[in-house]
What we know:
- Two copies of one chain form a homodimer.
- By secondary structure, chain A is an alpha+beta fold.
- The first copy, chain A, has helices at about 10-25, 30-35, 60-70, 125-130, 150-155, 160-165, 165-170, 200-205, 235-250, 260-270, 290-305, 320-335, 355-370, 395-415, 435-440, 440-450, and strands at about 30, 50-55, 75-80, 95-100, 105-110, 115-120, 135, 170-175, 185, 210-220, 220, 225-235, 255-260, 280-290, 315, 345, 350, 375-380, 385-390.
- Chain A folds into four domains: about 10-100, Uridine Diphospho-n-acetylenolpyruvylglucosamine Reductase, domain 2 (2-Layer Sandwich); about 105-220, Uridine Diphospho-n-acetylenolpyruvylglucosamine Reductase, domain 3 (2-Layer Sandwich), CATH 3.30.465; about 225-335, Alpha-Beta Plaits, CATH 3.30.70; about 340-455, Alpha-Beta Plaits, CATH 3.30.70.2740.
- Chain A has 16 helices and 19 strands.
- The longest helix of chain A has 20 residues, at about 320-335.
- The two termini of chain A are about 25 Å apart.
Amino acid sequence: MAHCHSPETKMPIEQALDDLQAFLGERLSRSKPDLDAHAGSESYFPPIAPDAVAYPENTAEVSRIAQICHAQGVPMVGFGAGTSLEAQTQALRGGVCVDFTRMNRVTGIRPADMDVTVQPGVTREALNEELRATGLFFPVDPGANASIGGMAMTRASGTTTVRYGTMRDNVLALEAVLADGTVIRTGTRARKSSAGYDLTALLVGSEGTLALVTELTLRLHGIPESISAGICAFPDMTSAVTAVMETIQMGLPLARIEFACAATARAFNAYAGTDMAEQPHLMVEFHGSPEATAQDAERFAEIVADHDASPFRWSAKTEERNALWAMRHNGYYAILASRPGARAVVTDICVPISELARAVEETQADIAASNIAGPILGHVGDGNFHAILLLDPEKPSDLDEAKGISARMAERALRLGGTCTGEHGVGVGKKPFMEAEHGAAWGVMGTLKAALDPTGILNPGKLVPDT
Amino acid sequence: MAHCHSPETKMPIEQALDDLQAFLGERLSRSKPDLDAHAGSESYFPPIAPDAVAYPENTAEVSRIAQICHAQGVPMVGFGAGTSLEAQTQALRGGVCVDFTRMNRVTGIRPADMDVTVQPGVTREALNEELRATGLFFPVDPGANASIGGMAMTRASGTTTVRYGTMRDNVLALEAVLADGTVIRTGTRARKSSAGYDLTALLVGSEGTLALVTELTLRLHGIPESISAGICAFPDMTSAVTAVMETIQMGLPLARIEFACAATARAFNAYAGTDMAEQPHLMVEFHGSPEATAQDAERFAEIVADHDASPFRWSAKTEERNALWAMRHNGYYAILASRPGARAVVTDICVPISELARAVEETQADIAASNIAGPILGHVGDGNFHAILLLDPEKPSDLDEAKGISARMAERALRLGGTCTGEHGVGVGKKPFMEAEHGAAWGVMGTLKAALDPTGILNPGKLVPDT
């Protein structure tokens, strides 16, 4: 250490940790396993651990934690279920990880208004379990059993977005703690409002860089009376995408519409012993009354027949539907299992639907020209897709190759009028593309961040330009 | 004038107007009729005129106007069709009104992606006229033939919001000019994104206080194959609202669901010679396939029958449907005509749906106890309603009484978990309720405003706390 400190003069981080320890007792952890468990995310980024992990139990405690960190200029990084894919929770500049595991309650269910208030640490599956008796559900489904707070902070979405929207569309109101500990409330339980800046929308997707969210009020939806679902294969991506565009333009109320490439079908056959055609597939779901979902499925069958698809096999029976979705839900694991010992880099771009076939085909050609494999899965109704790039962890060149493919995907998305991340967020992985995507607007993001967090203690080093 | 100026030292406003005149020529107007026409809005607020009106024709001109105004610290107030209801365009501190009438082109229609790019001055009706051949439409309908830019700036909505959302949900991307003339782009044509702060959502609803919007990319929707619509009467508001809540919970895809109170029915009978029951009414519309819209209407008929409604009369024929909606669309004029010579104060609150019957009934009781009339219309699917408070322009006490009723409505909305404005915006009229609605978050709005517009030239005096 270059500077000397007298015994009386503590480093700011030491002072903050002492103050936090006095306040939280055992709920401030500095154990090595705990720090390691909060050092990164489900991704290929190197772990960077915080100096301590705080486990608050209520908003007042989060506020007090922020006051202590603010007084010493110590960073705070929020943490939910640790399922983010772009290293959003890496403690780039150390500091305190604020883990919301103990703030995991559903605090108010209002079936008449079809809304619910939750603490940020509740997971998607736990929330839907608690809602079961009401006939309502929370539809945003990113695959992982993420925390609702984390999903809001990355503006998560998933397979049901084409019908029910993203977190942007399903968060009505927030309670949040600012950098200095001030507690604010944004939005109300009214379904809409024109009362000033939409701070709720500003915080959703802010990845913990503007505030720590301590409570969320969410829209709920009725569990559909009936669900029909089916699958079919196409000769190529272009026919599949064209069929989807026609379906959307006809106003057929798709609840899910997912595609999987030929390599994904092959991986799933090997994984589950099925005999799917090794072609691009579409998997589709309709929600509604029994009559409506049957009609929707039949009309979809007619559309895809015009685009050289295999016969659209569909069912409204739960068991058959579950079997059908197994490929999509296990797709990631089937792909991983196709290369024993492999690790994956999961990419994520979103383009206008008219550019989707081109984006997928160019990506496939790029992957084919490389030394690694990368089956593709995606949310075709949104124009969002993922290549699961498979790496040999012993071969550093594989990671370089994957990073190159991912970077070219992001550049391709921007060239085609899209975005470098549809649903995984910026974190560390997509920050290099923010300037190209946003231009001067990225500077505006930095201005907003500096205004709300002038000392830069909220998840520093992420999302906005470095100062 | 208290201060002396040498002939060489111009006032900043004079310098700005000289510079603008040199740049815009005849497209900078200082004529009295033009200033008067830009002094306010469709509302009861006193007119406050700008010093000049600028008519830019493209983004570069808006940017140059901003640079000139910024250099002299002169206010800028954006102006679309002048249909705002809360005096959003009053030039509270003078300056330059930026009128977007000449920026009214539809610059790109992309049917395959179901999106469109427009300049801010295009009106809702002109846009839908241009879209007609595509089979697509832009659904947000605030009633007035507002400009799209103005609708975005007030986060407008209307009768179709229950199905298609507000401007928040239908603006994909923006181009905007900041206070200093910097041009930014927010969002992309991708349907969703997790790439950083949602600046699009921050600008939508900002009422020209953060930037001047120069281009908008909007989501479009397919013109429904079939539309069914119908009407029925209820013994009281509670039964009507309960029927609506049941309908929504059952997942029936309402495209519009509007209510009108007994006094509105009475006014319409007098206006149009109809013989509607003088009771609360619901008017409903379903969009979809012919089979689906018929089934939806039949199911709705069953629901309302359980709530003591009159038989639900519905039709899928265009003529009958248009006749049916005449009451809703002409409701405002029918109500105005019920008091010849009267002016109206149009109120606007939004509450959780479970509180809607109570909010309406308390409002009706408050109006009944006053000396003025105030029929009620609303968007029951959103919990949003308006009392049309009728004033004798010769009686100043009527305006005081209307303001009192409007203030108590806003306070009632907040007490019931709602918002002081569902769709008309803050402007001048709702600013007194911002602190009560947002608490410390109102201060955050002020912080954001100060960060993006440090000299306070963008629509000064509106929306955020006075500094």
